[in-house]
Amino acid sequence: MSALRALRVVVSPARTIDGIRKELPADAAAGADVVEVRVDRLAPSEQGHLDRLFPAPLPLLGTLRSRAHGGEGPDEPEERRGRLAAMSVEPFAYVDLEVQRDRVADLPRPSPEHANRWVRSVHLANGEAWPSAVATLASDLPSTAWTKIVFPASTNELLTRVIPALPTPGTTRFVVHTTGASGAILRAWADRLGMAAVYCAPADGGRNGLSRVEPTQIPVDRLRPAVMDSAGPFYAVLGQPTSHSWSPWIHSRWMHDAHQKGLYIAVDIATEGEFSTAVPALVRGGFRGFSVTSPWKVAALRLSSSSRAEATRVGCANTLIAKGEELTAANTDQTAVVRRLGELRANGVWSDGRVLVVGTGGAARAALDAARELGAERWVAGRNPVETERVANEFGAQLWRSARDPQCSVVFHATTVGREPGVPLGIPLSGALARGTHLIDFVYAPADPVLGATARAAGATYEDGERLLTYQAAGAYRLWWGEEPPNSEPPFGAGALR
Questions:
Q1: Which end of the chain has fewer CB atoms < 10 Å from its terminal CB, N or C?
Q2: What range does the domain containing 263 cover?
Q3: Residue 492 has what pLDDT?
């Protein structure tokens, strides 16, 4: 693949002229080449004052995205014509026209010093029209900046149907972006695929609190040449879903602080079959490591060429290391629990040598194996009696059924309860919690505080999964880069007894 540098186009999420103007210096400092002003997202009173955007420190792209194509602007060509005419006389460097409803001939010709370069955009409801739409990429108008096609696609569709049909790099000025599950991949590969531009989010402000018009946009500061190379290495968290994941932010921060060039993104994988075909294709495209989250941890172990001892014992992998086309499976959930239990033993919180694990999935199995490695007395509780007994037998644990069983000073809650609001506790915990018990949740930044509230009501202490997340990420970083991350302490102070 060729490596042409795509223009970094930041899509401004601001809804006021003043908000856009305020962001522009930061966008320029973060590496943006162009800022897209979504005129359709501005209030009508704001749309009449576009002249206040100029002069601007960066070239601006004006876009009036229709409701039919996921925006908030008008669909009717006549109404669009008037608003686009008002935009075209302003000194926008580019103006976006929707091929299905806008015509250059209907718009006033801009003055020579403000000669707009038209971006032709095509938005498809699904990928079925992709084979016919791709022909538009090879038919540029002389004054067109680029032709842009956007549509939803699964990761498998992107890798098997979309990318093979893209124009040869350097033959035409095009942009193809997919949305949904595969959206971040084309943005990561924009340079190597020869795209004219890549549409980005503003610079990353921390954690997953980004303001993005399209959820799979990559923060522009992660796409700077000083930060990432078109040839990779690339890394990704794979799962279903991954939108909540903090891993891209954590790993990007570490790579930046360690002066390691790389890019980490989030990719949704819909099925195990897609997982088994997508991972090798991503490796061939420069991906050198994957974090694997629910529900594909068992699939990750099956796909690997070899596995580390802890992954084999746990029976699943949350980390894959690629060398050439060979994949090695690891389980850094397990090493994270070993580290955390060691800390809790050292500070006296884990005082009785007993651990209760709630759940029977991959995280629960990692916690049980870690407890076994440290010689702990192990108890397990789950909703499915047959599966719980099977896991108990596999890890030498005892079944915890009620408050009549021994209290454990450390309890790991290894289910997804709390990630989304309103999901009830599947296993009553009140009998397992008391003063002197510390509850560790695998869910970080829970949307529903039910577990913390339950622990505090029983007099127990609680920590969410941020520390475990950071420790398992540090383990993955170590395996990928061969060194410790610059700082493996949780960035937001989690892990305190509270």
A1: C
A2: 232-330
A3: 57
Per-residue pLDDT tens over the stretch 328-337:
999 999 999 9
Q: How many whole angstroms separate alpha carbon 239 and alpha carbon 275?
A: 9
- Is 58 a domain residue? yes
Average pLDDT over residues 110-117: 71
CA atoms in the 13 A half-sphere facing the CB of 214: 29
148 is catalytic: no
pLDDT digits (tens, 9 = 90+) for 229-275: 999 999 999 999 898 899 999 999 999 999 999 999 999 999 999 99
Indicate the number of domains in the chain.
Answer: 3
Please give the Cα distance from 145 to 196 (Å, whole number): 8
For residues 391 and 190, what is the distance between their CA atoms, to the nearest angstrom? 45
**Cα 333 versus chain centre, distance:** 19
**pTM for the whole structure:** 0.92
Q: Spell 282-298 as b/e; 16+ CB within 10 A means b.
A: bbebbbbbbbbbeebbb
Domain stops at, among 228, 243, 268:
228
- 438: in domain: yes
Residues 271, 251, single domain; the answer is yes
Give the E-state strand segments of 365-473 in sequence order.
Answer: 377-381, 398-399, 410-413, 438-441, 461-463
Q: Comparing 16-25, 115-124, 325-334, which segment has the lowest mean pLDDT?
A: 115-124
| Alpha-helical runs (H) found in 241-308 | 247-257, 272-284, 297-303
Q: Please state which of the ranges 184-188, 235-239, 285-289, 448-452 shows the lowest mean pLDDT.
A: 448-452
- Average model confidence (pLDDT) for the chain? 91
Residue 273, token pair as written in the block: 């079959």
Residue 375 belongs to domain with CATH number: 3.40.50.720
Catalytic residue among 22, 148, 297, 323: 297
In angstroms, the CA 243 to CA 420 distance is 12
Domain identity same for 211 and 108: yes
